[in-house]
Amino acid sequence: MATQRTSPRTAGVRTPPRAAGVLSRESGHEQVVFCHEPRSGLRAIIAIYSTALGPALGGTRFYPYACEEDALADVLELSKGMAYKNAIAGLDLGGGKAVIIGDPERDKSEMLLRAFGRFVQSLAGRYITACDIGTFSADMDVVARESSYVTGRSTELGGAGDSAVLTAHGVLLGMRAAGEQVWGRWGAPWQRRIGIQGVGKVGFRLARTLAEEGATVIVHDVDQRALDRARAEIPGVQIAPDLDALLTADLDVFAPCAMGGVLDERTVSRLSARVVCGAANNQLADETVAKLLDDRGILYAPDYVVNAGGVIQVADEIGGFDLVRATKRADRIYDVTREIFRRGAADRVRPDVAAARIAEARMADLAAVRTVHLPRTA
């Protein structure tokens, strides 16, 4: 029988030993759901950080976590990031995320995805899912056979398709804003040296566009197939043999586009770039890293600001997808990024602090408005 454990900010929830301190009142999460369906092999966690602005929207990551506590720690961080991302993007949506524990190439099946869809449906719209690492539009089509609360579906079925399209677009705009902040003008066209860690769904699009526009692009990925594709399809791309070689290369911009936590004390000390701007979620290993970057004179474009194009894309699907409309909304990422740098300079705080203040203020303001009772409609 399928099982579900839910924690609406209450004590007494059973958590894995190493994660026991993570899932608590201090985490700020409204609800955490552990999903298990033994016949399909489904093991998943859905985390809802906040619904102050509306239903919690965030993708489903399918990843071979070493243990459940690692998956829990990741989904808690990712769901919080989604709340801030949706708030600063101006969406009337809260923040949530899901992770499925397993190897997507080996463990993914129709039965498992449909079982996951039933858990999503059981939350009655508090959480809306989409694609993330290890999941694709075709997977969302399967999940949608069991749930009404699915975005990022195939364009053939009226969905928004692969959210990497506008994610990469938004990162490019954020990168332009950051470049102008550091160098006064970005270059014509984009004449900079850019290192990209991860050339998967988003990183590949980003690398190809930058190369086509005149940038020198250097990439690294742990997946040899991704590197082979980059070498074959991206004009003039250079391949770094490992992450250290990428970090220490002569770079203007470093773009993390793989898993989170790549920037820590060691990697920041080796980084040659003047700007960090990429698509990965939770790029900083912990809160102290933002100061390390700032101390070294490296401008950090907050990840949840510049990578918001993807959530803007799938959010547009909720009302009937229109790519032109979604792209226009994603275009605002350039202005939002510039405003964060402006406010940071005016308030004498780092960009990450300025961004968090804007997102938190919007969540607080809308939460206050929604204390007004609305009568039920038929």
TrEMBL record:
NAD(+) binds at G198, V199, G200, K201, V202, G203. The active site is at K97 (proton donor/acceptor). Gene3D superfamilies: Leucine Dehydrogenase, chain A, domain 1, NAD(P)-binding Rossmann-like Domain. Keywords: NAD, Nucleotide-binding, Oxidoreductase. InterPro entries: Aminoacid_DH-like_N_sf (IPR046346), Glu/Leu/Phe/Val/Trp_DH (IPR006095), Glu/Leu/Phe/Val/Trp_DH_C (IPR006096), Glu/Leu/Phe/Val/Trp_DH_dimer (IPR006097), Glu/Leu/Phe/Val_DH_AS (IPR033524), Glu/Phe/Leu/Val/Trp_DH_bac/arc (IPR016211), NAD(P)-bd_dom_sf (IPR036291). Pfam families: ELFV_dehydrog (PF00208), ELFV_dehydrog_N (PF02812). One of its GO terms (molecular function) is oxidoreductase activity, acting on the CH-NH2 group of donors, NAD or NADP as acceptor. GO terms for biological process: amino acid metabolic process. It comes from the Bacteria. Residues 161-371 form the Glutamate/phenylalanine/leucine/valine/L-tryptophan dehydrogenase C-terminal domain. SUPFAM superfamilies: Aminoacid dehydrogenase-like, N-terminal domain, NAD(P)-binding Rossmann-fold domains. The keyword Transferase does not apply. Belongs to the Glu/Leu/Phe/Val dehydrogenases family. This is Valine dehydrogenase (NAD+). The lineage of its organism: Bacteria, Bacillati, Actinomycetota, Actinomycetes, Micromonosporales.
